């Protein structure tokens, strides 16, 4: 099983300075933390986005906007600037982390709306996202609604808090059992650093990557070339 980009950016050439900054999370030291993810969650998302190079990202659940900033930075650092749309029913804190990265504001659209209303509107407009991060309400019923409403918007998703919340555990099991998706569960052990200088001893959050089933080796060569830019000979070892 592998995660492949649905619509990859061409890679851009990075200067030495940009390479050094690419996976630097030092900017999070000045973050206004809300109910966002933990450092390792963001690091995982950033690594995934650096491989997928999505042009358009959707986040369900903005809170204080740390995630939106990380997603916008990560989606853009190896390629042309990507755009993040992030929706929350309450955007009063959403913009409180725009100071973290110069110029990041123009790469994020903040929407204040109920996801139950906004996501169907996106679908009705025919919008498509290369990556969707689902991190809104964490009870089973609402997470299921968000999942269903996102299904027509992308084929590559991540959920947060999928080990911490029983409703999300259940939803992940159901998605896996449909057999229509590749599901990758990442669990961090308790005792990790949730924020700089703060340790969380008692629970782990969990990130689950979900991608509509595809098989890169089974793809026609033309599709392989579309993914990889050109046909490269494989290595025997
Ligand atoms: C865990 S926080 C999001 C954290 C954010 N993804 C980050 O990494 O910084 C969950 C957010 O979902 C929002 N939310 C809950 N139900 C919602 C709904 N029906 N529509 C939109 N947002 C909702 C809450 O207001 C809350 O801010």
Task: Compose a concise summary of this entry.
It contains 7 helices and 9 strands; from the N terminus they run ααβαββαβαβαββββα.
Tell me about this structure:
- The structure is a single chain.
- The chain has 237 residues and is of the alpha/beta class.
- The chain has a single domain, classed as Vaccinia Virus protein VP39 (Rossmann fold, 3-Layer(aba) Sandwich), CATH 3.40.50.
- Helix content is 31%, strand content 18%.
- It has seven helices and nine strands, in the order H-H-E-H-E-E-H-E-H-E-H-E-E-E-E-H.
- A seven-stranded mixed sheet has the order 3-2-1-4-5-9-6, with helices on both faces.
- Helix 3 (66-76) links the parallel strand 1 and strand 2 (83-88).
- Helix 2 packs parallel to helix 3.
- The longest helix has 14 residues, at 39-52.
- It is globular.
- The protein binds S-adenosylmethionine.
- S-adenosylmethionine binds next to helix 3, strand 2 and helix 4.
- Residues 35-37, 59, 61-64, 66-67, 87-90, 114-116, 135-137, 142 line the site of S-adenosylmethionine (SAM).
Count helical runs.
7
Describe the strand arrangement of the main beta sheet, using strand numbers.
Answer: 3-2-1-4-5-9-6
CATH architecture level-2 label: 3-Layer(aba) Sandwich
- Taking all Cα atoms into account, the compactness measure Rg is 18 Å
Instruction: Summarize the helix and strand pattern as letters.
Output: HHEHEEHEHEHEEEEH
What is the typical, i.e. mean, pLDDT? 84
Class by alpha and beta content: alpha/beta
Q: Look at the structure and name the CATH superfamily.
A: Vaccinia Virus protein VP39
Which fold name is given in CATH as the topology? Answer: Rossmann fold
Largest sheet: 7 strands, mixed
Q: Quick one: overall form?
A: globular
Measured between the Cα atoms of the first and last residue, the distance is 19 Å
Please give the CATH class. Answer: Alpha Beta
Count up the domains: 1
Bound molecules: S-adenosylmethionine
């Amino acid at each position: 099983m592998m995660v492949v980009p649905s619509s990859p950016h061409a890679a851009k050439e990075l200067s030495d300075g940009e390479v050094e900054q690419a996976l630097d999370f030092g900017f999070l030291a000045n973050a206004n933390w809300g109910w966002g993810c933990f450092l390792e969650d963001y690091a995982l998302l950033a690594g995934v986005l650096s491989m997928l190079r999505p042009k358009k990202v959707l986040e369900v659940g903005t809170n204080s906007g740390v995630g939106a900033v990380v997603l916008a930075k990560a989606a853009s650092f190896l390629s042309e600037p990507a755009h993040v749309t992030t929706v929350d029913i309450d955007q009063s804190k959403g913009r409180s982390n725009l100071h973290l990265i110069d110029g990041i504001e123009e790469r994020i659209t903040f929407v204040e709306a109920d996801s139950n209303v906004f996501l169907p509107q996106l679908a009705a407009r025919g919008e498509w996202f290369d990556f969707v991060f689902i991190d809104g309400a964490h009870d089973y019923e609402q997470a299921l609604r968000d999942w269903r409403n996102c299904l027509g918007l992308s084929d590559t998703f991540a959920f947060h808090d999928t080990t911490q919340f029983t409703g999300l555990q259940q939803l992940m099991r159901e998605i896996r059992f449909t057999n229509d998706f590749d599901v990758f569960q990442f669990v961090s052990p308790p005792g990790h650093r949730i924020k700089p200088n703060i340790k969380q001893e008692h629970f782990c959050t969990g990130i689950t990557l979900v991608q509509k089933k595809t098989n890169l080796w089974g793809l026609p060569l033309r599709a392989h070339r579309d993914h990889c830019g050109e046909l490269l000979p494989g290595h025997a070892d």
